[in-house]
Structures are given as C-alpha cells and as structure tokens.
C-alpha cells in the first residue's frame, strides 16, 4: 500500500496551494452556471475545451493539468439539475484514485 499524507484545511478551495490537487463534482454536461463552483473553476483555471475532449460519463473523472497540479472533475450526475448519488460519487472517487497512483 502506498504511503500518503491527508491534511484537512479550512480555506477557500480555489486558493489552495499549487502543490495540492483539487477535486470537485460536476455534471456530465459540464454546465457552468454563473455563481456555481464549476463556473468559478472555469473562470480561474479555464480550458474547459480540454475537458470536453475527454470521455465524460457519470461515475468517471475528467482530469485537467493546470501549471503544477491536477484538477479532478468528478462526474457524478448527467445534468446540472440532478442530484449526486453515493454510488456515482464512489465510482468517480475510485477513478480519481486510479489516476493518482
């Protein structure tokens, strides 16, 4: 088993140090409604065109490399107005873990 260090921080996710990978849940349609976290990610990190070239399916993860870190988009639902389930979140987290190791 790989050794890792888990650190819990209370800070704005968008301004975490560049040595940290970031992850958040999105819908497969990559809807970036103004004011949402996905919209803020699009404004700060841009390059959603790169994401749309990846196979984006529910229960999977889309990955963007930004400068020196990875940003993980956990695809947990088909459309922005739907609700994430534990099953789709779990599947996306497993995919993220596989990319990390």
TrEMBL record:
Biological process according to GO: peptidyl-glutamate ADP-deribosylation
InterPro entries: ADP-ribose_metab_enzymes, Macro_dom-like
Highest taxon of source: Eukaryota
The protein's name in its UniProt record: O-acetyl-ADP-ribose deacetylase C6orf130 homolog
């Amino acid at each position: 088993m790989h050794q890792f260090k888990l650190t819990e921080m209370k800070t704005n996710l968008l301004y975490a140090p560049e040595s940290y990978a970031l992850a958040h849940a999105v819908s497969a349609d990559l809807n970036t409604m103004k004011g949402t976290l996905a919209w803020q990610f699009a404004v700060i990190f841009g390059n959603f065109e790169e994401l749309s070239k990846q196979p984006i399916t529910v229960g999977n993860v889309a990955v963007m490399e930004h400068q020196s870190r990875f940003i993980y988009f956990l695809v947990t639902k088909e459309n922005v107005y739907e609700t994430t389930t534990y099953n789709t979140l779990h599947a996306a987290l497993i995919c993220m873990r596989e990319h990390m190791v």
